[in-house]
Amino acid sequence: MLKLIRIDDRLVHGQVAFTWTPALGIGCIIVANDRSAGDEFLKMTMGLAKPAGVRLLIKTLKEIPSCLQDPKNKSANVLLLIESVKDAHTLCTELAEIKSINFGGIRAKAGAKPVSKAIALTDADITLVRELLQKGIELEVRQVPTDKKQLLENLI
Prior knowledge:
The chain has helices at 14-24, 34-37, 40-49, 64-69, 71-74, 85-94, 123-134; strands spanning 2-8, 28-32, 55-59, 78-82, 100-105, 113-114, 120-121, 138-141, 150-151. By secondary structure, it is an alpha/beta fold. It has a single domain, classed as Phosphotransferase system, sorbose subfamily IIB component (Fructose Permease), CATH 3.40.35.
């Protein structure tokens, strides 16, 4: 069962491992990232960052729908990590069950404007965000579970 879908360009890191995972009783972290799925070094470093006792799967975007249908994953509390708004938008076209996305961290880059202390979006990101909002998907900003939920639509 998908407990949280999170956009965070750091993917597996301390906030995910030590706050979100225990708060939601996560048994499996799935990273949806084409680059990481093909990079053994990134896989190894994420494996070291994950909490003990939690499964970690690193898949390409194309593999995610079938991965989520796997009975082992359907029965686990799953945290799905995505690196970018573009990747989230791609998955939302494939997965009708996505109703809410947590924006946890998108670092500043050229052409991006800060919308919160941890989120910077480009114009292209904002276009995709608006499309997700039109589909009725809740987009919320929180770095950790104890933060007050902010709706992204009120920040852009």
